[in-house]
């Protein structure tokens, strides 16, 4: 494998500047460019704090203050002038994603461009404004080409947010393999020019980790040796004087997947959790306490910190609900599951449910129905919830609808949509509602017997 050859080259030294972090905000009119951009920066090792701001014609969006290095706001057509006047600073980039006339300002990019065009413009803009991006703009541009040509936005979505499936695995993993080959060829050029370490080096380790993660989910073992991936990250970390949060998170996740390394993983997550916005690190530490140490009380405190940082982090809210249930705080648990549903219903109303959204919307409703029956004896409410789940599932299965729930995520970029369409089918098949129907039929039979 090319990665094994590249790792043998030692002494990866990088200029000692601090990595920039990005806050990406989008208003929900078209989230595809946002997902594309976030996926790219994740591979590049630039931490992106995501947030969705819900708005409509009657309620103007409000942006909570966040002290980030770079703020990117993806806009639809509403409130463009007002938002730019209100929030426009030298550290804020606005990306206009609608047919509205582009305002004549230097900070607007993205008009009538596809995802890769938006990304290229963004890299140019960041290179002009920030030393780090200017120094590494060639590496970023090369990575952008590799990212697009190997369909890594869709591949990351497929391997991260869908249930694992061997057939889909065979369709997606060649994208990782080809991307790693392309990166390794670029790194050979770097070595010849005495360039030791940049975004491409991080991308090599990150894609190797992602490939291993998916192999693990399919119980096929690791393709790339974790110690080789850790060797890359250790040398990069040394070169960046330990200030690269995304690098620490990647190391933590590599250790998290290894037997007997959970303590080391936890230490690295904790090292990144000191920042005011890193909800993901607290979420992962909570998972360790819940899964590895079976301590719901301590896990609960970690998940709560994740939610405090990001109140829209529905997976963390779901975990808080799970822990409260295990601690027999059923009323609190049910309220939190309803909060998860509320957040996901916003996405559902906009027609932008991701596969992970669908799964959590399904599970949250099911858990509430269970609480209603087992704790409160309200069979009628449980039946109502089960019927709603079945109705939702019918809509998800209706691929002919012009308002297809999965549409926006299927078309994350201009790549042929067949792979993601198939991935949604896998999700549909594995999250069927047969158990819901069985539960509903059983409860309705109980109601009938009591009525008789």
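^ structure tokens above, recovered residues below v
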């Amino acid at each position: 494998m090319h990665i094994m050859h590249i790792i043998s080259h030692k002494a990866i030294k990088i200029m000692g500047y601090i990595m920039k972090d990005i806050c990406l905000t989008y208003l929900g009119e078209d989230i595809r460019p946002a997902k594309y951009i976030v996926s790219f920066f994740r591979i590049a090792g630039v931490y992106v704090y995501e947030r969705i701001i819900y708005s409509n014609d009657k309620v103007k969006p409000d942006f909570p203050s966040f002290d980030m290095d770079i703020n990117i706001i993806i806009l639809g057509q509403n409130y463009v002038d007002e938002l730019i006047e209100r929030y426009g600073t030298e550290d804020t980039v606005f990306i206009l994603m609608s047919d509205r006339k582009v305002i004549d300002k230097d900070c607007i990019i993205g008009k009538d461009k596809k995802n890769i065009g938006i990304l290229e413009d963004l890299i140019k803009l960041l290179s002009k404004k920030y030393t780090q991006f200017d120094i590494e703009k060639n590496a970023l541009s090369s990575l952008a080409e590799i990212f697009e040509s190997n369909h890594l936005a869709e591949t990351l979505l497929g391997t991260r947010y869908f249930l694992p499936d061997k057939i889909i695995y065979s369709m997606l993993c060649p994208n990782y393999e080809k991307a790693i080959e392309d990166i390794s060829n670029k790194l050979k050029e770097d070595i010849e020019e005495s360039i030791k370490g940049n975004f491409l080096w991080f991308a090599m380790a990150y894609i190797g980790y992602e490939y291993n993660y998916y192999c693990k989910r399919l119980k096929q073992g690791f393709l790339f040796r974790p110690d080789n991936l850790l060797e890359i990250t250790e040398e990069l970390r040394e070169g960046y004087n330990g200030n690269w949060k995304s690098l620490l998170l990647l190391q933590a996740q590599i250790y998290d997947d290894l037997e007997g390394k959970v303590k080391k993983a936890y230490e690295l997550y904790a090292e990144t959790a000191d920042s005011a916005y890193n909800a993901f690190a607290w979420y992962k530490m909570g998972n360790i306490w819940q899964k590895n140490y079976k301590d719901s009380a301590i896990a609960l405190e970690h998940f709560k910190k994740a939610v405090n940082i990001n109140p829209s982090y529905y997976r963390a809210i779901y975990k808080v609900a799970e822990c409260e249930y295990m601690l027999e705080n059923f009323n609190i648990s049910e309220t939190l599951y309803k909060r998860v549903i509320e957040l996901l219903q916003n996405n559902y109303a906009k027609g932008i449910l991701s596969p992970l959204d669908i799964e959590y919307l399904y599970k949250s409703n099911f858990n509430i129905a269970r609480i209603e029956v087992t704790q409160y004896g309200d069979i009628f409410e449980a039946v109502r919830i089960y019927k709603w789940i079945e109705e939702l599932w019918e809509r998800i299965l209706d691929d002919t609808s012009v308002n297809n729930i999965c549409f926006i995520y299927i078309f994350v970029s201009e790549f042929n949509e067949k792979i993601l369409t198939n991935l949604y089918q896998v999700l549909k098949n594995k999250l069927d509602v047969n158990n819901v129907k069985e539960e509903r039929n059983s409860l309705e039979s109980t109601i009938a017997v009591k009525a008789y």
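The first strand starts at residue 22 and ends at 26.
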